[in-house]
Amino acid sequence: MAELLRLLLQVSEKAANVARVCRQEAPLFQLLVQEKTGDDKNKKFVQDFKTLADVVIQEVIRHDVGTQFPEMLGFIHGEESNKFENGLGESVTVTVRGSEEETAALLATVLDGDLTAAALLARAIHQNPATVDTSADGLQVPLRPSELGIWIDPIDATSQYIEGREEVLEEGHFSPSGLHCALVLIGVYLRSTGEPVMGVINQPFNCKDPAGGSWRGKLFWGVSYDDVNVCSVSQPKPAPERRRGLSVVLSSSEKQVVKDSLTSLCGPENLMYASGAGYKILCVIQGLADAYVLSEGSTFKWDSCAPHALLRALGGGVVDLTKSLECSSEAKVELTYHQPYSEGKGADRWANYGGLVAYGDCSRLSSIMGALRGKL
């Protein structure tokens, strides 16, 4: 497990570099943000360059993990399809090739011959990060790669990534929107039970160098299996040292009945709103909020798997809201990651249909479930 975790930390940093390059290099940034009109609007690669950036990151992770652990190849799942249609109507499958030149040549076919953009992307794909977190070296967990599967969300909060609003934040402060909310998420689960056992979260845009203007990222990781619970994040400080009362982060589009019920429980000053499912769970991991509540089935396995593992390592978790409310007792129905929703189609097969509550402390979860019981 230590070897797998080390690899995931490395590939997450490579993925973060790709995300940063797409915003920092002018030829890629223009493709990322421009909106084509008229005759150009059907050129899928331009309309969906954001999707290509997602796919490139996803395929980097799939390639590097599959190369080192071939027994996992059939169980590395991502949010995006890696098939594109270029301006000539040709179908192109995006993969990472054996060399930078080969990858650039493939990307150029997707990008209608834009050699500059293709070369910049290929360089980021094949460039290994300079440093890797070694704090997990020697971690002993009795699991084999053949027992595990992976969920990848290459860029969570894509809309915030595209919009690119920048804020200068002090370390550990809450950010409701902007580049800070864009995350690379890699979650590992047990194939047999769907239990999340390892998670890596990379925040590519954590802080900006005031001198050079370049962004630096931050890594978060956790492992939770049997009696092994290790996390790169310290346990959040208990109230009242950080915030008085129970605090909950929500989506701004959350149902009014949920907002009203939680306002009664927490007080309006302790309800916060933020972008990105992954970022909202990261807020709970960091202790910036006690819980994240979502009543809709609008998140997916790739959104929650990685941060779920970190929360478990800290003594918390992520439950299915609907199923947990249906329980007559205090039972918690944790999300699992190995089985699709039988009535769903396409990506919806992997939706967290019952909504969710991400929590750091069981007593906080109990209070929230009590406030929502009978309201949904």
- Our measurement of the CA-to-CA distance between the termini, rounded to an integer number of angstroms, reads 40 Å
Quickly count the helices: 12
Beta-strand percentage range: 15-25%
Q: What structural class do the secondary elements suggest?
A: alpha+beta
The chain-level mean pLDDT equals 87
| Biggest sheet layout | 6 strands, mixed
Low-confidence runs of at least 5 consecutive residues: 35-47
Tell me how many strands there are: 13
Strand order of the largest sheet: 1-4-5-6-7-8
| Molecular shape | globular
Helix and strand pattern? HHHHEEEHHEHEEEEEHEHEHEHEH
Computed over alpha carbons, the radius of gyration is 21 Å
The percent of residues in helical segments reads 25-40%
Which features characterize this protein?
376 residues, alpha+beta, six-stranded mixed sheet, five-stranded mixed sheet, 12 helices, globular
Task: Describe what you observe in this structure.
- Helix content is 36%, strand content 19%.
- The protein is of the alpha+beta class and 376 residues long.
- The strands form three sheets. A six-stranded mixed sheet has the order 1-4-5-6-7-8, sandwiched between helices. Strands 10-9-11-13-12 form a five-stranded mixed sheet, with helices on both faces.
- The protein is globular and about 60 Å long.
- Helix 1 (2-24) crosses helix 2 (26-33), helix 1 packs antiparallel against helix 6 (115-126) and helix 9 (277-285) packs parallel to helix 10.
- A hairpin with a 5-residue loop joins strand 5 and strand 6.
- It has twelve helices and 13 strands.
